[in-house]
Amino acid sequence: MAKTIIASLKKNKKTFELILDFDNYLKWKDNREIPLSDLIVGDYCFSSISKAERANESDINEAFGTAEIEKIAEEILRKGQIQLTAAEMKELRAKKRKQIIEFICREAIDPQTNCPPTPARVEIALNEVHLDIDIFGSLDEQINDAIKKITPILPLIFQKDKVELQIPVSDAPAVQKIVRSSARILKERWTSDFWIVLVEMHTSKTTPFLEHLTQMCKKEIISKKKED
Q1: pTM score
Q2: Which of 41, 70, 111, 225 is 20 to 30 A from 130, alpha carbon to alpha carbon?
Q3: Which CATH architecture has domain 4-83?
Q4: Which CATH fold would you assign to the domain 86-157?
Q5: Averaged over 164-178, what is the pLDDT?
Q6: Beta strand ranges found along 63-130 (DSSP E)
């Protein structure tokens, strides 16, 4: 039987709850393109799951302006709370810590050995800096925070790409947020036809980033890798 958790939101002095598939919730945390329908168990909105009481339809429409379960779930996940047991929180924290360690071991080189650091060495470094894992926080932000904290005691070199993007002006508003959140902006300028931006990112992220950007743009984008 699938493990489940509860997402809840108080609105208009009423409580709205959803049952979520725990494993699919974890996948969704890392990939927001996963349909919310994969998370929701039962397709019902409750006023109290513990009492098996469904929310009144008029209350749902008044609170969310819709009875569509995915739109309701979107707001509950964005504004509400996830009810987790201590064991579930521990599992989430361990999973995110493992992802941070795997990223560093995959992307970094120890300049003293010219080899990737071992997971055990990264784990020791994280323990030494007392890295605090936010189970609901951005994985990318916490990876960057971990790298910043451990490099004074564990020197690391990371492979990065510099890529110049020429994005059609008509597509720029739709993709600016993802570009700015996925990469470090080095330079940018606007022409009458393009938003031209030079970005820097970890090498392993370059290809999936460009593929995702291409899918989002209605017109063709031009990308060129730049050498230092």
Answers
A1: 0.61
A2: 111
A3: 2-Layer Sandwich (3.30)
A4: Arc Repressor Mutant, subunit A (1.10.10)
A5: 92
A6: 81-83, 108-109
